[in-house]
Design goal:
The protein is globular, with a radius of gyration of 16 Å. Strands 1-7-6-5-4-3-2 form a 7-stranded antiparallel beta sheet. The protein has a single domain (13-147), classed as START domain (Alpha-D-Glucose-1,6-Bisphosphate, Chain A, domain 4), CATH 3.30.530.20. Strand 5 (86-93) and strand 6 form a beta hairpin. The chain is of the alpha+beta class and 148 residues long. The mean pLDDT is 94. It is 26% helix and 41% strand.
Length: 148
Amino acid sequence: MSVQPAVTAKPSLTLKRRLTAPPGKVYAAWTEPEKIAKWFGPEKIETLRAQADARVGGRFRIVMRGVDGEEHDVSGIYREVVPNEKLVFTWAWRSTPERESLVTILIKPDGGGSLLTLTHEQFFDEAARDRHAEGWAGCLDKLARYLS
């Protein structure tokens, strides 16, 4: 008889958002640095710099500043890129690089617009998931306004 170690699932979150823009415009908003800089980040957060090389193995980096003046620096590596349909990338804050997680963006046509599904997996703990859920909700609100 063998004993298998318990596998504890790491917390994750999934958000869906209906957008008025077609998939190509939604994809461009996620992959073109000049577009990312115009909408990315939670409410009341300013994006200072955005870099993106949207190809498998390519990197992205986004630097944001909060109302308190504190900078937040996140980066990752693209693991899967399907133009106008899907992005999968790692996600790590400069302050806690050991807590790398994984983000999947799915974009599907929906009438004249798109349905975006964001799944963020492998959080360090539930508190990190909860902070990101709030941040991503604000981020997707800003994306919807940018694309409208």
